[in-house]
Amino acid sequence: MTSPTAAAPHAPLPADPHRSWYEESARGRLSHLLDAGSFSEFLGPQRRELSPHLALFNLPRQFDDGIVVGAGALAGKPVLVAAQEGRFMGGAIGEVHGAKLTGLLHAARQMKRDVVILFDTGGVRLQEANAGELAISEIIRATVQARAAGVRVVGLLGGRAGCYGGGSLIAGCCSALVISEQGRLSVSGPEVIETNKGVEEFDSKDRALVWRTMGGKHRYLIGGVDLFVADTVAAFRAGALAALDRPPTLDQAVLAAEQARLERRLARFGDTADGTEVWARLGVNQPTDVPDMDLDDFLTIANRQREGADAAR
Amino acid sequence: MRDWNTKGRDRQARLDAGRHFAAGKIVAAHDLVAFLEAVLRPGDRVCLEGDNQKQADLLAKALAKADPAKIHDLHMVQSGVVLPEHLDIFETGIARRLDFSYSGPQSARIARMMFGGQIELGAVHTYLELFARYFIDLTPQVALIAAVSADKDGNLYTGPNTEDTPTVVEATSFGKGLVIAQVGEIVDRVPRVDIPADQVHFVVNAQRPFYVEPLFTRDPAAITETQILTAMLAIKGLYAPYGVRRLNHGIGFNTAAIELLLPTFGERLGLKGKVCTHWALNPHPTLIPAIESGWVEQIHCFGSEVGMEDYMRARPDIFFTGPDGSLRSNRAFCQTAGLYACDMFIGSTLQIDLAGNSSTVTGGRVAGFGGAPNMGSDARGRRHPSAPWLRAGEEADPDGTPALRRGRKLVVQIGETFGDGNAPMFVERLGALELADKLHLDLAPVMVYGDDVTHIVTEEGIANLLLCRDKDEREQAIRGVAGYTEVGRARDRKMVERLRERKVIQRPEDLGIDPLDADRGLLVAHSIKDLMIASGGLYRPPSRFRNW
Question: Which InterPro entries has this protein been placed in (chain B) (predicted)?
Fold first, then answer.
């Protein structure tokens, strides 16, 4: 439900900057992220571009298929935006959902306009498996093409459903990523790991473990993301602006640096079993204290000890 | 001449048999199975301690490993059937008959075993009712209990999760039974004596704490806006007009929402100090913000809650704590308090029928009762007046002689018209009746009887059943808040409108509540982390509830 404050039509800045990003809907996040009144939606719910597959399974459909795409402005600068709705089928990517994002990225390349993606997804929608997998490939290709044309593609990671599966692969292709403590980024989700490898390998119900392995603080410490922000709509707006200030470069040197970074990560941390062990190797003095640290304490330590990814983006 | 001490001699024989395995009172953990085989006799009445929270898990595992050729046909009399071993012993024949109270996590398996005839069921009780029977006709011959620590004499420290232990020990030990305790450690001096050594016969060192389930932790992040609306209705439509100061809350998300709305919505209504001051309640983490903002004067607890220990230790004015500083809970006393000294019980349920009977039995599951039917019933033995109790009595019987009129406890069922998995909360026929047919039970497992229920709250409004004058009015009042369920759609619209004019039914707008105001922004805490912060870091949430 959109809050009354979010609907304030002409406010220059979000009316309640402390609202939780994690708690907001896709539309709520967009209304707080963008300059007030600047958003115009493409293929909005009134067009009723419904999933052609879900009805076969007797599952409810949504008029926007769980993603909101359109154009808006961030501090006066025009951007294209996509926001996934984690509350509809866990933000899972189906045929229409994927096509909307692909189209947006194609437009970004042609218009030379930066893109901000508000991730909130468990990955491919299982009921639309093949169409969903194809959509992921198309989105990745469109992302890389847009970036090759000099467009920035910024990912914001702080949604309830996290950013998993194919969604995490798309995030990995972004020019910059912004995450909150609540954000999660991982290819395989906790339940998938437990199902395939057993509860001894990974207890998906141990939420603290989930956050130590996939959560925002961990991803920031190992250089999997570029910016760490508080879980507020204002902090994500500021984070998006900062991420859009970063260079859009995607060339051979960047890819080589990324490859070297990942090889180094594997060599350094490949045998660890828990986030706390990784943080200890990074040189964090009291690794078990990391989850309870507040934002300022965490950033002080993290910015001193973390693995940077700057050269690799 | 009659022997007047057969029970005492029986216990002495068991003590002698057990001593072969013990140094003083201390039994080594690796001898535990053989020890149990030595002190137990076929057909014994045994209380294996465990409820919806704490578990004598080491003793349960050891009992399950006993040789059914030696130990068989036990009659288990215990609060909770919760661990797999609690049912394993019925499969192997170690146990045959069962009297219990709660079986939440084993509700499906226990039902299958009852259908299959592997369990001979005595009865499903409320906690207080089962405790009562420990002193009358179900006195255990052996009790297997759990404590935090023991000294060498056998004095026990049961800690914040004292719960059922004093009651079980009282009945067993003074009834000439044998008390065997598992403890997490043996210490020189226990922090406080919860159970005196002369009531404890053997102690086994498990070298780890007994298992405790964090059953009462509700994550604010999972509370929906519909639940917030029902909470607003309850606060403004019930807590405020009746002035409910002494109460018990159930375990569900609707009541968690009420706890989280007190410092916001409740404060705005000017209710602080006027409602929700005295509680019979487990230490719900969601009550922390209300405690911190000065709403709560005192709480007595059935049990503890994992992670709340340090917080309660730091709030001794609010909680009952011992000389060591930690919480002392006591399920029997708190249940009694909930029955006699509270003016309101409010809790969620899964099914309500047209007479207002409610049940948590669905689809062949036997979850038992726990304490809710005791809290959620009128105490016919109550004699002290209070404003809410007298007012409820007057609403039920406006023409009665005031000085001879019983008051009524407010027994409120709260929930959404469609619950989990879109299952309707309102039904023509309770699932409990099918279960009773299938198991040939004399009584269907009804959680709260219709004649005890005074109000039903849904997102559609509040039905005040005290104001209903006959069966038809009750039925239409219930249908009137049943929304778009089949039961709701079959309502008599004209009669429901008349009931609304008489305020038997009150819609959100009748109470000046706009459903669109039911926003998560009203919750004083949005996450478990918010609760931890509100406690000043004293609340330590278990790992499974942390999303950081």
Answer: MadA (IPR005777), NagB/RpiA_transferase-like (IPR037171)
